[in-house]
Amino acid sequence: MVRFTGGVTAVNGLAFSVAKGETLAIVGESGCGKTVTALSLLGLLPPGASSVGGSIVLEGRELVGLSQRELRHIRGQRIAMVFQDPMSALNPVQTVGVQLVEAIRAHRTFSRAEAWQRAEDLLALVRIPEPRLRLRDYPHRLSGGMRQRVVIALALASDPAVLVADEPTTALDVTIQAQILRLLSDIQREMSMAIVLITHDLGVVAETAHRVMVMYAGRKVELQGVYGIFDRPRHPYTKGLMGATPRSEHARDSRRLEEIPGIVPSLASLPPGCAFAPRCAIAEADCRTVTPQLRDIQQAAVACHHPLP
Amino acid sequence: MTDLLEVENLRVSYRTSRGSIQAVHDVSFHIRAGETFGLVGESGCGKSSLGRAVIRLLDPESGSIRLNGVDLASLSGRRLKPYRALVQMVFQDPFSSLDPRHHIGRLIGEPISVGHDQRGKAERVRELLVIVGLRPELIDRLPHELSGGQRQRVAIARALAVSPELVICDEPVSALDVSLQAQILNLLADLQRAKNIAYLFISHDLGVVRYIAHRAAVMYLGELVEVATGDELWLKAAHPYTQALIEAVPHLDPHNHRISDKHILAGDLANPARPPSGCRFHTRCPHVMPRCSVEHPELREVAPEHFVACHLYTGGNSQ
Fold first, then answer.
1. Of A206, A246, A263, which is closest to B254 when you measure between CB atoms?
2. Chain B hits for A27, Cβ within 8 Å
3. Exposed site from A46, A265, B280, B313, fewest CB < 10 Å?
4. Superfamily for the B3-86+164-313 domain
């Protein structure tokens, strides 16, 4: 559970796991708590927010309750993060090489020469052409796609077991997005890394995730394997998101998309019962009074009183 | 349907400290009354510059922009004014396009011509709020009191206030969550049916354009490379760049579309200041032929209403 000062609960009762070599996608709209979830994994919650209870276990070790110093050691070493905007993760007044070398030497003892060689190898790993030359570039000299590759190289500097990627391709053009998603998938296979991918884009989920967790108003509303969730979404919100996304494979017979009426509720004033009920087409009386608990239906976990067949 | 807008050989360039950059290069297309014409491309392709030139926020370098037969490109100042009302614009970020100090009534009422008295104006604003699916009580609110989706509805109401024949929508849903995107796209489609408005719909998202546009064009480095109906473009794309865009769009179908099985276009977008010779796409094209770096391909009709600028379709390979 994550709470902001003032008592707003951003994330509540969330449980999930991700295995070696697996991609877990966390999908949801603005304000659903997906980014707060990612930040709490790394102990990077903003001032005013605190993790209240709960447990995060990485490779058998409990992270909640560790000191900042202990966390800093794990962060970057075993778990690393890639953000949406590559410029926010890069220092504009230092060359790519200097930043990589710093990240490499932060966690392990390498000689200067070894670290520079490793920096070059990392740029090659993220498929940057002429890596040795690029080490001397400043971030502003690079295109958006190349910058995001550098950010990924920085995150990989210490062979993390888990990579948390928060909307890593949202700021990129679609052809560049495909390049970066392929890169993440290739690297995952080579390093059998676990990826927690946070995104609003169901297309990105369908193409890259192994398992999918859908969040709404700070809670997990559905968790399924990628094939199951697209073939047979159980939560009305999941199905609504799919209907609202204009990427049908079929010839178009209507220019109307399926709408989810209304807007996402404010976390400070959640309705009683199921938070999605006011927007749900099949909500009944119990939905407006009793908060649905997660339950297993075949291969799916769903928090809904009336899950879809 | 008759042609409402005819754009011919339009060029737009920017002067920078390092010389001039041609953002739009010899672009021609037409939009019929009541039609949605989509314009798709990646950053820096010139699609926004094209939209801004049509509404004359930018001065074209050459070419013509005929609205109902009158060339707007040749008009300026006072003579352009009567036509301003006929073409309106909706921007991506409704927050930056709405003055934060003005209440909704003023924002929507501003463009309503004189001739309406204050009460008539307020009446009209309430009517417009209802038309775009908002409660009329919002008339006294300020932009920051509204959600992103509500603000975009206000921006649409403002554009409708003067009963335009053409609305240029520049990425109108890109900043919105998907559930709100669907609401706004449906609203635009409903308004079009009710008022026979034409849209020039500019977007980076081919999936969205395919949904909303009757016809659409794909733009690459300042030029149109393919023009067709929305469905034809999506299902029978002919230009290698359009094909690459569709391949790159993340599909909602994990059985048939996984990132590991894709043919992904390599390379970065070329620098618009120094476009490649011949076909501008030849530096990234998987089907590049020797003539592509030399000869510039023109748009040619390959099927009814389907135009492609590519040497694969010009027949009789010269090499």
1. A206
2. none
3. A46
4. P-loop containing nucleotide triphosphate hydrolases (3.40.50.300)
